[in-house]
Design a protein that fits this description.
single chain, 16% strand, 11 helices, alpha/beta, eight-stranded mixed β-sheet
């Protein structure tokens, strides 16, 4: 089985619609794909309706969190999307994205970059506006060559010249809320140091004690040494190890299925979940 547990659609900051994402996942030879848009579940219905035969969909979300001043992302899988407390927290985070984008645009204008809200809103479309949309605007303007080049201290990385904070959930609260909603929690790309400061291992140990299920190890932003270190940490803490593409369509160079999760780990994730269940494809439209 080929299993990719971290993918984005136009419901947040990917360039594939949810329907295109599942079709492309099937074409890439995946058996299981997770839809994990940022702080939203709006892509679920379209993805399910288009789900090809032979492909299983795992519903999820990537939750924006912050601990001790460090931003981090929590992958939440197979939770009840209508559970009221988690729904309210996701909406709080999502609603803060628009004023944050306006703030980043203002900072960029102050740095002499003629980006506009209209440009960023056009790029975001119906998705939850975020830094990748602002980064895409910088690419359009020729300020940086790629979206990844915008995530530096010079521009949009945490603490960068045009960075703006937004409401982010305490990860311990996120774990509590996801568990309450019957879901499973995996810390996304915990060693992605080029994005900015990373969460210390001591905090990951505290999260493990609080119910964190796993950490994402095999990821494009982790080199071999980082992966080895994280595997060792997962073993020490009794955490599951996942691998995923973090696919964003054409917004990033990584391909669907470029990094994958072991089938036994996937099976354990599905066994732990009680809020929702994987959806088998029956041949979508």
């Amino acid at each position: 089985m080929r299993i990719d547990l971290h993918c984005h659609s136009t419901a947040s900051d990917g360039t594939d619609t949810p329907a295109e994402l599942v079709r492309n996942a099937a074409a890439a030879g995946l058996d299981v794909v997770a839809l994990t848009d940022h702080d939203t579940t709006r892509g679920y219905a379209e993805a399910v309706a288009a789900l090809p035969e032979g492909l299983t969909l795992v519903t999820g979300a990537e939750l924006s969190c912050r601990v001790d001043g460090v931003s981090m992302h929590m992958l939440a899988y197979l939770f009840d999307p209508e559970e009221p407390d988690l729904l309210a927290e996701r909406e709080l985070v999502r609603d803060d994205r628009v004023p944050r984008a306006h703030g980043m645009i203002a900072k960029l204008n102050g740095l002499g970059v003629p980006v506009t809200w209209e440009q960023v809103a056009r790029i975001a479309g119906d998705g939850s506006v975020g830094r990748p949309h602002v980064a895409s605007a910088l690419v359009e303007l020729g300020v940086v060559p790629t979206v990844s080049d915008a995530f530096t201290q010079e521009w949009l990385a945490d603490g960068g010249r045009a960075y703006m904070e937004k409401h982010e959930t305490d990860p311990f609260e996120a774990i509590r809320l996801v568990k309450q909603a019957g879901g499973v929690c995996v810390f996304a790309h915990p060693g992605a140091s080029k994005r900015g400061r990373i969460v210390p291992e001591s905090a990951i140990a505290e999260m493990a004690a609080a119910g964190l299920d796993g950490i994402e190890v095999d990821h494009m932003d982790h080199d071999e040494d980082t992966r080895a270190r994280l595997r060792g940490l997962a073993g020490e803490l009794g955490l599951l190890v996942t691998g995923s593409s973090d696919y964003h369509g054409s917004r990033k160079t990584v391909l669907l299925g470029e990094y994958t999760t072991d089938p036994e780990v996937y099976g354990e994730i599905t066994r732990r979940a009680t809020g929702a269940f994987p959806v088998p494809g029956t041949g979508g439209a």
